[in-house]
Amino acid sequence: MYPLLDEEKFRRLTGVKQKTFDKMIGILEQEVKDRKTKKRRKKKISIENMLLMTLEYIREYRTYFHISQSYSVSESNAYKTVKWLEDTVIKHPDFELPGRKALLKSDTDKSFFYATGNHFLKKLFLRVTWNTK
Known about the structure:
By secondary structure, this protein is mainly alpha-helical. Helices cover 69% and strands 0% of the residues.
């Protein structure tokens, strides 16, 4: 992956600590192993690159076109990969997001939550959650 990067540079690049990255890889590997009941085509890219692709999308707000060019996959595969990975990691208890009601009960500006979409909130809180663990 990025063996030459120290912890600080890795976090600057990905937005998460190496320990958190490794934890997410473990979650994804388990999910892939559980999904292997059906015979499927082999993935073009590794789980590590799938996670890096998703982190680039969340952290840098790169378009699917740019991501697909960087990883030599189609735009639709980039979208499906990012969507699957976000959904898989969010479902895991270690990265679970608070519900909308819990967010509204907090002392945060409530107009912000009414004005923004749910997908944006997921990304925002994923960034906060991933950066603090």
